[in-house]
Amino acid sequence: MTLNAKLLVIVLDGLPWRNWGKFMGNLEGWVQSGEAQKWKMRSVLPSTSGCCYASIHTGVPPQVHGILSNDVRFRVSQPDVFSEVTKASGVTGAVTHSYWSEFFNRAPFDFIRDIEYDEPGGPITHGRFHTMTGYNLINQTTPSDADLFATLTMLTERFALDYGILHTCTLDSMGHRFGHDCGEMDHALFVMDAQLAAFLPRWREAGYEVIVTADHGQTDRGHHGGHDDEMQDFALYYFGSAKGPRADTLLDQLQLAPTILKRLGLDAPATMKAKPFLG
Question: Hey, where are the domains in the chain?
Answer without folding.
Answer: 6-264
